[in-house]
Amino acid sequence: MEQPSGSPVRVCQFSPDSTCLVSGAADGTVVMWNAQSYKLYRCGSVKDGSLVACAFSPTGTLFVTGSSCGDLTLWDDKMRCLHSEKAHDLGITCCDFSSQPISDGEQTHFFRLASCGQDCQIKMWVVSFTHVSGFELKYKSTLSGHSAPVLACAFSHNGQMLVSGSVDKSVIVYDTNTENILYTLTQHTRYVTTCAFAPNILLLATGSMDKTVNIWQFDPEALCQGSTEDQPKQFIEDWSEDDVSAWLCAQGLEDLTGLFKMNNIDGRELLNLTKESLADDLKIESLGLRSKVLRKIEELRTKVKTLSSGVPDEFICPITRELMKEPVIASDGYSYEKEAMENWISKKKRTSPMTNLVLPSVVLIPNRTLKMAINRWLETHQK
Predict the structure, then answer these.
(1) Distance CA 331, CA 45 (A)
(2) Tens of pLDDT along 238-262?
């Protein structure tokens, strides 16, 4: 099955009943295939950008595509374009439907949809269907918590939770009804690129550029309580002693919580701890344990430095870690400084700096939207 336009395929998705398959390409073309005969059914295309995300509604009557230019497009199962909307300023990275449709008991059916993007945001949408107006896509809310581009999002099987993974190395689990943060998970040491809930048990998997997959087991009782009291504040300097204790537990250092509380270690004190103070003041005798604590604290310091630099992470080139002047979009969907990416490719590196996968193409497309956003940010801060 070859994409009719001859463009590299970026995303594909089966319908819930497996009767059809949708594929989206780098040139914005979208194709629906018959999954039994492997024959092309219908074609369409979006106005701008590459197709980088796709998700079917739980009933299979419609699907959504997301583009590198930030547009969400709603299609029906006959490949008719129902609606298109600018969802994320700097490009969409992922989208997902909740598997549980909602009915108001009358003739209207609702589907929850989540999208995330390079603008560091997660947005919640409602897709509604009525016999009078047909399908509609409506913005509902924006979920906060991440300080860098969000690369992945996924609903739990029952639709009660939404998980997201980000360039800020964190994983956040939300309650979809209250939109409160249930958990903030910070064990990964590099970008979190993918996440998935198990279909019928309380397990979560997260994958990262740190070359690990983490598996998380949920406590049903804690979920029922829906408590967010143990979630540390976003600004580490403002952490209380209890926040530090919660952070220690999340790092697998729960045995140190009593020691840290006894010495009144809050967020500010935590960031100032040194090898000497851990040994002399806190009396942590184990060299391995001291090294582990210092390594985790150094990760926090790096996070503080990134947040306090003031430069949005999506404006930073992943290769040079400097503010981009001529951003370009590579065939992996990520943006880089033009010169840095050209040098990367010239050294015969045909793999993505972000994913380590082979680049389907070495063509670099100017990211004018991102360049305009950077220039606006520069003008504001120079004033």
Answers:
(1) 18
(2) 788 888 888 888 788 888 988 998 8
- For residue 86, give both structure tokens: 């600018």
CA atoms within 13 A on the CB side of 22: 31
Does 104 have pLDDT greater than 70? no
Joined tokens for residue 214 = 């983490």
pLDDT exceeds cutoff 80 at 225: no
Q: Would you say residue 309 has pLDDT above 60?
A: no
C-alpha to C-alpha distance for 272 and 266, rounded to whole angstroms: 10
Per the CB < 8 A criterion, the answer to whether 118 and 149 are in contact is yes
> pLDDT tier at 304 (50, 70, 90 boundaries)?
low
Cβ(337)–Cβ(317) under 8 Å?
yes
pLDDT tens-digit readout, 359-370? 888 999 999 888
Q: Phi, psi (5° rounding) for residue 382? A: -70, -35
Task: Determine contact, residues 50/65, Cβ cutoff 8 Å.
Answer: no
pLDDT reported for residue 73: 93
Average pLDDT over the chain, rounded to an integer = 85
Residue type (1 letter), 382: Q
Q: How far is the C-alpha of 106 from the C-alpha of 244, rounded, in Å?
A: 49
The token duo for 46 is 């979006």
The answer to whether the Cα torsion of 201, 243, 143, 379 is positive or negative is: negative
The pTM of this model reads: 0.59
